[in-house]
């Protein structure tokens, strides 16, 4: 999946992946896609909840070699 911006949040513990995601999503335009890479196991539930509360859309998520990847479309 193509992303307009990629955020590397690997090695960061909660709540930093969410903090960095919020900052990154503020830097892109509505309708653009942010790809996030995180290693924190809590990132999946945290990001899923954050996406819903912000009205954004979680397009896809995957796990690859211990790295969780998320593609979020900005509302």
TrEMBL record:
InterPro entries: TusA-like, TusA-like_sf. SUPFAM superfamilies: SirA-like. PROSITE patterns: UPF0033 (PS01148). Pfam families: TusA. Residues 7-31 form the UPF0033 domain. Belongs to the sulfur carrier protein TusA family. This is Sulfurtransferase TusA family protein. It comes from Pseudalkalibacillus berkeleyi.
């Amino acid at each position: 999946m193509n992303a307009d911006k990629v955020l590397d949040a690997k090695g960061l513990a909660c709540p930093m992946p969410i903090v960095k995601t919020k900052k990154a999503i503020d830097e892109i335009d509505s309708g653009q896609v942010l790809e996030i890479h995180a290693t924190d196991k809590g990132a999946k539930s945290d990001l899923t909840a954050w996406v819903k509360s912000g009205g954004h859309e979680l397009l896809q998520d995957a796990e690859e070699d211990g790295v969780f990847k998320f593609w979020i479309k900005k509302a």
